[in-house]
Design goal:
Elements lengths: L1 H7 L11 H15 L10 H17 L6 E5 L4 H13 L4 E7 L4 H8 L22 H10 L2 E5 L1 H9 L1
Parallel strand pairs: 1-2, 2-3
Helix pairs in contact: 3-4, 4-6
């Protein structure tokens, strides 16, 4: 588990909730109670801009045409940042989101034209298991994404093996 590595490095680890959304609510409230700053992991313009540097690295490392870039989607920060950068410098390239079938909040939100909140999410791909995508990330993705593909657990396992 990722949290065990963080704990080994000396951090205090508090496990709250079954999915990211419950954890975020706890962290926001705790930051208020303790007078600390909450740094959101995806729904923040500065965080999204920082994630855009991944797109910059892709362009630097691949100076030729990029036909498509496939990006995992959780709350949408990584793909929003990459898409914002890529559509400026390589507008011909397609930006495709990849979501687990049991955590497909972005795909459903784009389909319905508004943010959709899932009742539950699968925990297998825990890094992208959010019940609702960010407000800012949704607006950017609605404007910039060329599509989203859904993958099941078997496809994720097969990709990990490769």
């Amino acid at each position: 588990m990722q949290w065990q590595s963080v704990k080994r490095l000396g951090a205090t680890v508090v496990l709250v909730g079954d999915a990211y959304d419950e954890t975020q609510a706890y962290a926001k409230q705790r930051s208020i109670d303790e007078g600390r700053v909450f740094v959101p992991p995806f729904d923040n313009t500065e965080v999204i801009a920082g994630q855009g540097t991944v797109g910059m690295e892709l362009v630097r490392q691949h100076p030729g045409p990029l036909h498509a870039v496939f990006v995992p989607v959780g709350g949408g920060g990584l793909i929003a940042g990459i898409a914002a950068y890529m559509k400026q410098v390589r507008p011909e390239g397609k930006i495709i989101g990849v979501e687990p079938t049991d955590a497909n909040a972005m795909a459903l939100s784009l389909h319905h034209g508004r943010r959709v909140s899932l009742q539950q999410v699968g925990g297998f791909a825990d890094g992208v298991a959010v019940k609702v995508v960010g407000e800012e990330t949704f607006q950017l993705c609605r404007e910039l994404l060329d599509g989203v593909v859904l993958v099941n657990r078997d496809a994720i396992c097969a990709a990990i093996k490769v």
